[in-house]
């Protein structure tokens, strides 16, 4: 997944099939489709059921076997989101089984709830983190994909809106193979390139390539100046009790900054605070969460929540003390996190989970992979799917126009 180096010209206007082909996926032949159909004879879908009703042991076992990591769909995280996070509760789930084994899982909500479009489709349930790639069993990814498509059909959906999925990953390759075998083609509604870290490399070599000598010198100077406020320490909380204490420090830092001014910090919304405390505690108990903190003396100046799934880390959120802004605390924390992850033999890559062109993380983590929203038809030549597609594109255009208007207003107010 993280070896991808697409440029905008390569992706603009392409369909999912083109992205998969660009990622050097082997093209599925008619024989491949026939073999895949033969393998799926024992696959059973369970249509659409409440997310909270999934057996957590089965879910954890599937996450261990997932063909592609996604910490935001780990059961302890998504169940905490589903229980209390405002606007993200009461999700359903599509599942697929082979005999008695859970092989596919995708949390979903009605399209009407996700987008306001009252048409018969399902959309990925948003897990707070910016990745909704479903879980497919690595031993039978095509079977997993087919089982979830069948479950969506039995639930009455005419299409699936898969939001914020890794376009070049193994999950979408498997889905594409199944769709091709059924004569269907998914459509990319939007996409962007997201920053990632190749943690198999030497951190110092990576940082020297990413940042100029002048920039690194300036960051070292800032760190030396920061030491005037006390010894600079990088602390890693892993045990549940350590994570609980570090989380409270993180929540204070986040609320002290611009998110606090806008009222969007986790600690300012009671049900969000309940979710993040529950999720981080549960994941710390299984080794899937750590909180990193940069401190000057006894004063925390930056902290970040990092999730882990298989060989991948996920940089969920960062909070900084803006009183120390002249020392670039967010960058200093990210440099330390980079060294920490590159030194960890169990981590091969890290997803920044940041938006496109993020001004802080993009210059440091120079890997890129494609993230996008994908519309998956469930029946060939379905006029309802065409209507859904048109409605989604119109909604997207309206939102982009509104976003540009907000940016213009903010720019005008700064004059």
Which tags fit this structure?
415 residues; alpha+beta; Aminopeptidase; 15 helices; disordered N terminus
Summarize the structure.
The protein has helices at residues 8-11, 16-22, 30-39, 56-65, 75-84, 111-115, 141-154, 170-181, 203-210, 213-226, 240-256, 258-262, 270-285, 329-342, 383-413, and strands at residues 43-50, 92-98, 101-110, 121-124, 135-136, 159-166, 187-198, 232-237, 289-296, 299-309, 312-320, 349-351, 367-377. It has 415 residues and is an alpha+beta fold.
Description:
The protein has two domains: 8-194 and 370-413, Aminopeptidase, CATH 3.40.630.30; 200-347, Aminopeptidase, CATH 3.40.630. With 415 residues, the chain is α+β, with helices and mostly antiparallel strands. The protein has helices at residues 8-11, 16-22, 30-39, 56-65, 75-84, 111-115, 141-154, 170-181, 203-210, 213-226, 240-256, 258-262, 270-285, 329-342, 383-413; strands spanning 43-50, 92-98, 101-110, 121-124, 135-136, 159-166, 187-198, 232-237, 289-296, 299-309, 312-320, 349-351, 367-377. Strands 1, 2, 3, 4, 5, 6, 7, 8, 9, 10, 11, 12 and 13 form a 13-stranded mixed beta sheet that branches.
Low-confidence stretches: 1-13, 21-41
Secondary structure: helix percent: 40-55%
Q: How would you characterize the largest beta sheet? A: 13 strands, mixed
Number of helices: 15
Query: How does CATH name the architecture of the largest domain?
Result: 3-Layer(aba) Sandwich
Q: What would you report as the Rg, rounded to the nearest angstrom?
A: 22 Å
What coarse outline follows from CA principal-axis ratios?
globular
| Residue-averaged pLDDT | 90
Strand content bin: 15-25%
Considering the protein shown, what is the CATH homologous superfamily of the largest domain? Gcn5-related N-acetyltransferase (GNAT)
CATH topology category name of the largest domain: Aminopeptidase
> What structural class do helix, strand and pairing data support?
alpha+beta
What series of H and E elements makes up the topology?
HHHEHHEEHEEHEHEHHEHHHEEEHEEH
* Domain count: 2
Termini gap: 43 Å
Tally the beta strands: 13
Q: Class of the largest domain, according to the CATH hierarchy?
A: Alpha Beta
């Amino acid at each position: 997944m993280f070896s991808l180096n697409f440029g905008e010209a390569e992706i603009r206007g392409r369909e999912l099939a083109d992205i998969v082909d660009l990622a050097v996926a082997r093209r599925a032949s008619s024989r491949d489709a026939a073999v895949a159909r033969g393998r799926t004879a024992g696959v059973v879908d369970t249509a659409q059921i409440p997310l909270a009703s999934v057996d957590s042991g089965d879910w954890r076992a599937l996450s261990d076997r997932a063909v592609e990591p996604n910490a935001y769909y780990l059961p302890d995280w998504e169940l905490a989101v589903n229980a209390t996070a405002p606007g993200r509760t009461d999700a359903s789930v599509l599942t697929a089984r082979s005999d008695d084994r859970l092989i596919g899982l995708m949390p979903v909500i009605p399209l009407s709830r996700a987008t306001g479009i009252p048409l018969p489709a399902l959309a990925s349930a948003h897990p707070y983190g910016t990745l909704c790639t479903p879980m497919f069993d690595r031993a039978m990814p095509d079977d997993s994909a087919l089982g979830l498509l069948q479950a969506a059909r039995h639930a009455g959906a005419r299409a699936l809106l898969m939001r914020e999925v890794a376009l070049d990953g193994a999950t979408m390759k498997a889905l594409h193979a199944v769709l091709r075998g059924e004569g269907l083609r998914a459509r990319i509604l939007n996409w962007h390139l997201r920053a990632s870290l190749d943690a198999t490399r030497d951190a110092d070599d990576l940082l020297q390539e990413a940042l100029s000598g002048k920039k690194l010198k300036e960051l070292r100077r800032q760190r030396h100046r920061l030491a005037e406020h006390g010894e600079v320490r990088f602390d890693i909380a892993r045990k549940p009790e350590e994570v609980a204490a570090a989380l409270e420090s993180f929540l204070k830092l986040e609320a002290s900054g611009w998110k606090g001014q806008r009222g969007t910090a986790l600690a300012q919304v009671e049900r969000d605070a309940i979710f993040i405390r529950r999720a981080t505690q549960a994941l710390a108990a299984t080794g899937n969460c750590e909180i990193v903190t940069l401190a000057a003396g006894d004063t925390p100046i930056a902290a970040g929540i990092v999730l882990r799934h298989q060989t991948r880390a996920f940089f969920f959120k960062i909070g900084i003390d803006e009183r120390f802004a002249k020392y670039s605390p967010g960058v200093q924390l990210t440099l330390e996190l980079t060294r920490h992850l590159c030194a960890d033999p169990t981590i091969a890559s890290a997803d920044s989970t940041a938006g496109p062109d993020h001004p802080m993380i993009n210059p440091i983590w120079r890997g890129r992979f494609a993230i996008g929203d994908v519309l998956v038809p469930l029946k060939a030549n379905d006029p309802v799917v065409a209507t859904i597609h048109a409605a989604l594109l119109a909604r997207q255009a309206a939102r982009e126009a509104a976003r540009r208007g907000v940016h213009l207003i903010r720019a005008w107010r700064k004059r």
